[in-house]
């Protein structure tokens, strides 16, 4: 057996291994865990099945994560649709993600709440691990904010209340999610919230989730788990994670729902962190007093004082005037806001200026019919080096560059120069820049919502955008060429 194959087998065994734990059985503390039979060996509620990928009819790609791909998949015999999370065993082993994958599997298995994505079963083959998740057909809350520009206070209240309801459950069983953000808040076809992505979860010492794998320490200085724009100031100062992390991220998410963008945004992670540490928070005029007050209290600098994490816990959070009228006991039977469906059209445009090298940054500005930035936190400081002073990023995404027999991850950056920069994230010295004037004529052809081709005088490049923004890339490029 080759070393790589052996590694793949290990990843599979590790994810499904009956785990020994010296923790008490969660069935004693958690009524939801009673359905799991706890004899000598532990049985997962979501079983490991003997299915193969051929048992499923695969549909669109919902999205691509750092070590997985999530695909809509209909089980051929039952007709039931799942979101199939597919992970490459060799990649997981190579990247040392085995214990994190197992953690996510064990945690999802024991979570039982209508506001959290459900894991139904797992299976594997020689190459991949598969998790069959509840399919969230309404997409990400992030896309609702992008499509609507910003949400009304009623809409934001509805979503925030459902997130609070799920977070209360998550915290009560002793878990810190650590990556709450609009991209990880998925929606059902009806429009109810489902918290997803437990890949960064941190179990607390006296939590109720059992059979946890041993994890590598992440408490090292200079590293943080989560997403730059939603990370609380104390985590940047290397304090250990607390429930207050998720409350801060909830505050950022509420702000983003109401305003259209996250409260601490800038052109690089470093600049975002400066804003977070300085708590450089500006409320738009149209926020109601209740919305301002709640956001302000969720974004308290002291994690222990954040509403919900403070001494009165969730009671204090739920009675905040912003939530007046919310029927907390019947929250999942309320009618959700109408979902904004995907359209080719885009509104608004935000530009993010490059740092000018003198320590000052210029602010963002709005103009022109060019698409909105996908997500400012996708602009990380690594890409800054490719911009000239004052140059603005119009669109940026990690895409797949498709070649004849293979594909590779690429960072595509469109700037207002206009210029298209294509960087291999694994080797940032490998960068190609394409001008877009008459001599360097560049054209773009969309072949599907996910795929597009870029033709330059010297080559044709095929890209796949898992977030289905092929039309947005075309509009943005052609918009700049017309200017
Ligand atoms: N149950 C689901 N139903 C529908 N779409 C989903 C579901 N789970 C995940 N997705 C989509 O698939 C994308 C990839 O999910 P995945 O969990 O692999 O990684 P991620 O959370 O985006 O990234 P990372 O692993 O880097 O944190 C998500 O952004 C989301 O849009």
From TrEMBL:
GO terms for biological process: intracellular signal transduction. One of its GO terms (molecular function) is ATP binding. PROSITE patterns: PROTEIN_KINASE_DOM, PROTEIN_KINASE_ST. It is a peripheral membrane protein. Residues 1-21 have a biased composition (Basic and acidic residues). Its EC number is 2.7.11.1. Residues 22-37 have a biased composition (Polar residues). SUPFAM superfamilies: PH domain-like (SSF50729), Protein kinase-like (PK-like) (SSF56112). Keywords: ATP-binding, Cytoplasm, Kinase, Membrane, Nucleotide-binding, Phosphoprotein, Serine/threonine-protein kinase, Transferase. Its main location: cytoplasm. Coiled coil: none annotated. It catalyses: L-seryl-[protein] + ATP = O-phospho-L-seryl-[protein] + ADP + H(+); L-threonyl-[protein] + ATP = O-phospho-L-threonyl-[protein] + ADP + H(+). It comes from the Eukaryota. Residues 1-37 are annotated as: Disordered. SMART domains: S_TKc. It is an enzyme of class 2 (transferase). GO terms for cellular component: cytoplasm; membrane. Residues 56-323 form the Protein kinase domain. It is found in: Cytoplasm; Membrane. Belongs to the protein kinase superfamily. AGC Ser/Thr protein kinase family. PDPK1 subfamily. This is non-specific serine/threonine protein kinase. It comes from Papaver somniferum.
